[in-house]
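User: For my dataset I need records formatted as: sequence, then structure tokens, nothing else. Please produce one.
Assistant:
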Amino acid sequence: MPNVPFRTLDDMPPLQGRRVLVRVDFNVPVDDQGRITDDTRIRGALDTLRELSNRGARVVVASHRGRPKEWGGASLDIAAERLEKLMNRSVAFVDDVVGLEAEAAVERLRDGDVLVLQNLRYEPGEKKADPAFAEKLARWADLYVNDAFGTAHRGDASVALLPALRPGYAGRLLARELTALQGLVDGARRPYWAVVGGSKVSDKVGLIGALLDRVDGLAVGGGMANTFLVAQGYDMGASKVETEAVATAAEILARAEKSNIPILLPQRVVAARGFAQDAPSREAAPGDLTADEMALDVSPAAVDVMLEAMTDAATVLWNGPMGVFEWERFQAGTMRMAEGLAALGAQVVVGGGDSVAAVTQAGIADRLAHVSTGGGAALELLEGKTLPGVRALINSPRG
């Protein structure tokens, strides 16, 4: 681990008999039957939780799930059950956060035990960053560990306030995330390329602006490519275009040209008649779409052109899919990008979002340098911002 401005598990004092509250991100997707469909976030916390337990800590796990307006509806009991299976040991769960039931459950803990609290967002003080709520939560901890990179950009009580009340440390997942992504900000190996997708230019204008100061080339896909193509003068038919962002896209293109940074846009798209997963579709060049057609994916052939330009890349950041990835019929461009990046031989970092699902589905995640678990947190970090959760750890008192 390179020098970092925060403390990690390596800096923790002896843990035998001490209570350690670990903020994790167990905001897992669940189907209509209440079953977890992807436990990646739970798996991401295993290294930290196992290490703390093995070192004799009494581990209290805290997380949010969903956006419940009141008590109930997004319980963390299913996450506790999955954690128990993954850890292959007993994991307790309490349907309480800072009340008497939670107090009793914490008191029952023995060295090495693991307890999962109920959904933090059942308590209004969490999102309100209420100091009184943070004080109550701090009662369950002698030490604090943040291993929830996906929420490190939030100012929630358990993220931004708790480290001021107890000595704070970065868990293994958080430390890996910060090291990998900060490396792209501070000086990635060149040539450095970025691939940015997703639906809206406005969602990522900050990221693109920051990248233009760092990268040697940029490839753009997804719905945002439509807005850039319109800015170049193409008629994109019925494609979803951010009309209010066309001027912004034009400014980005002009800035890149002035700086001699190539921006690659799709030369061919998959155009469909209607926004539906079974809509009739065909490949077309930008400007050749009919009035009732919309671009829903980048043609795999067009992705190959982008990949060819990145042949000599030493570093590649990928954030966002090439098309409507959730529909199988329009995911070929995204999958081609995933497979192509894995074959480049470059240090490839995937910066959260649907692109993570793509590399997982393509089965190539283990061939990449880093796959981030954070969406918004990754974007803000890559824009050069200091995340509230990280700032809190840096300023946390020493134990």
